[in-house]
């Protein structure tokens, strides 16, 4: 059977055409384990590269600078496949099989001298070598102020 999702299609006058189906990493995601934190806390980041395309992504690279106001936890970077380095931020190269995924993880410690509320924003750039490179972000609020609003029911303040 010939379909338009496996690299083969039926053209005009019944001719069979072959084309390259690109990888698709657009559903890849980045997560952090804490949405709020305090100075000195450790944040764990996970980048999940998901290839929903019908072709392998064989020349994928990920670049993830260590966010400002944090320090990389030495030796915490790992990946389920490929090659990972941590000398200039986190850098990963490798392949992601069609309909497969790769997980990349690392940790940072929030600087202890932060006194004002701020956002720690971590951005990874993902490039599959075929489609345009794109970014994924994870955000943690440090020294955030909790706000508690009163509960009002039927004209009564509780």
Task: List the defining traits of the structure above.
158 residues, mainly beta, Immunoglobulin-like, five-stranded antiparallel beta sheet, flat
Roughly how many Å is the radius of gyration?
Answer: 22 Å
Q: Return residue spans where pLDDT drops below 50 for at least 5 consecutive residues.
A: 1-5
Percent in helix: under 10%
Order of helices and strands: EEEEEEEEEEEEEEE
Strand order of the largest sheet: 4-13-12-6-10-9
Query: How many extended strands?
Result: 15
How far is it from the N-terminal to the C-terminal residue, by CA?
68 Å
Which helices and strands, and how do they pair?
Blueprint: E1 8-10, E2 16-18, E3 29-32, E4 36-37, E5 42-50, E6 57-64, E7 70-72, E8 78-79, E9 83-85, E10 90-96, E11 101-110, E12 118-127, E13 134-142, E14 152-153, E15 156-157
Describe this structure in words.
With 158 residues, the chain is mainly beta. The protein has a single domain (23-142), classed as Sandwich (Immunoglobulin-like). The chain has strands at 8-10, 16-18, 29-32, 36-37, 42-50, 57-64, 70-72, 78-79, 83-85, 90-96, 101-110, 118-127, 134-142, 152-153, 156-157. The strands form four sheets. A six-stranded mixed beta sheet has the order 4-13-12-6-10-9, with no helix packed on it. Strands 3, 5, 7, 8 and 11 form a five-stranded antiparallel beta sheet that branches. The protein has a two-stranded antiparallel ribbon with strand order 1-2. It starts with 7 loop residues before the first strand and ends with a strand.
